Amino acid sequence: MPPIHHFECSRCQKTIAAGAPQTVCPECAGSLYVRYDLRSLAGVSGRDSIARAAAASPWSGMWRYSPVLPDVQPVTLGEGWTPMLASRRHPNLFLKEEGANPTGTFKARGLALAVTMAKHYELPQIGCAVSGERSRALAAYAAAAGIEAHIFMPRDVPYANYVEAVAYGANVTLVDGLISDCGRIVAERKQVEGWFDVSTLKEPFRVEGKKTMGYELVEQLGWEFPDAVFYPTGGGVGLIGMWKAFAELEELGWVRPGKKPRMIAIQSTGCAPVVRAFEQGAAVSQMWENAATFAAGLRVPKPYGDAIMLQILRDSEGVALALSDAQILESLKDWARNEGIFLSPEGAAATAAYDHLLSTGFLKKEDRVVVFNTGAGPKYTDVTAEAMGLQRPLAAG
């Protein structure tokens, strides 16, 4: 495995040594990318070694891509290598079922890497602001690593997120507000109380964990890029990570030459800062006031990585679009009844977006696309039941 060569700022391109833990760029507060010297892995032989090594392991998960990840002993709960499910009704639509990850969420990938590196750097405490399902994953991996976790989340997130985080032994604080309010509290207290901040794009390794989604979907499609990738977008780490993966795949020569996928960012009309900025041609988003949606993972009123996401959408000739909660709920019910898959609200936003972009002609039925279901739908039973107007039936008699 090539060691980490350096960190590179996503804004000013400053390079920083990788021997000590880093948060953001000390010059401009930009998010940092991990950079490697990948020359030794170039070519088909380097690519084929992944499958051979994975076949010899009982379960390698996302760590099958360890040659392009930091050379450390992983803290793993079995994350990654999730199913790629072909739609029963759309012959070129594949659903990446991230609900199969530990704690039922794609957040397991990024936090497995972030917590692994926290343990590697011997950090005793980590802090994080979360909008929903990340709380479960952070608490689980912190428990597995023996690291104390301090989690701040909005009071009205799906109840399962709170229950699991507490069960894993994390220090959980419910906040009357949004994730932006939680982030402010972490920023105010982390220096005083000695936490290392692993909030979205405040450290470089969650992107590395999320980039495995990009490697994985390309390998599962026969080492070819799809035409488009649909990604429910709150903080956007996965979108950023996959785009980094696609660039590395081209650098390595592991993918057949061709145009990289069009990246589709999906938000809710109740919280759509990236969509508004994209439509206005802006370089960054503005704070979304009174953010509200039952898709809690999309309720991020001002993503830290908005400038990076907007550039990716434009470079890929993609698009950002917002769906109403009513459209999201209708797609959730449609996929449950016709595909046998109980999507998370965020995943249902992506499937609703696929239907919309087919109807507008932005995509054709012949286009091969990957849609991400970012979490297990049953984890959202309380908010989905409320959106559907369901109540527990009274006992008969």
Annotate the secondary structure layout.
Blueprint lengths: L3 E6 L5 E2 L15 E5 L7 H12 L28 E3 L6 E5 L9 H14 L4 E5 L4 H12 L2 E7 L4 H9 L3 E5 L3 H15 L2 E2 L7 H16 L7 E5 L4 H16 L9 E7 L4 H8 L25 H10 L3 E5 L1 H15 L5 H16 L8 E5 L7 H8 L9
Parallel strand pairs: 5-13, 6-7, 6-9, 7-8, 10-11, 10-13, 11-12
Antiparallel strand pairs: 1-2, 1-3, 4-5
Helix pairs in contact: 2-3, 2-6, 3-4, 6-7, 10-11
Description:
By secondary structure, the protein is an alpha/beta fold. Helices cover 38% and strands 16% of the residues. The protein contains twelve helices and 13 strands. The strands form three sheets. Strands 4-5-13-10-11-12 form a six-stranded mixed β-sheet, sandwiched between helices. It has a four-stranded parallel β-sheet with strand order 8-7-6-9, with helices on both faces. A three-stranded antiparallel β-sheet has the order 2-1-3. Helix 10 (325-339) packs across helix 11 (345-360). The longest helix has 16 residues, at 205-220. The mean pLDDT is 93.
Feature tags:
397 residues, alpha/beta, six-stranded mixed beta sheet, four-stranded parallel beta sheet
In brief, what are we looking at here?
The chain has 397 residues and is of the alpha/beta class. It has twelve helices and 13 strands.
Would you list the SSEs in sequence order as H and E? EEEHEEHEHEHEHEHEHEHHEHHEH
What's the number of helices? 12
| Termini Cα gap | 66 Å
> What's the average pLDDT?
93
> Strand tally, please?
13
Largest sheet: spatial strand order = 4-5-13-10-11-12
Poorly predicted segments:
none
Task: Please state the structural category.
Answer: alpha/beta
The major beta sheet can be summarized as: 6 strands, mixed
Dominant shape? globular
How much of the sequence is in beta strands?
15-25%
Helix content: 25-40%
Q: Using only CA atoms, what is the Rg?
A: 20 Å
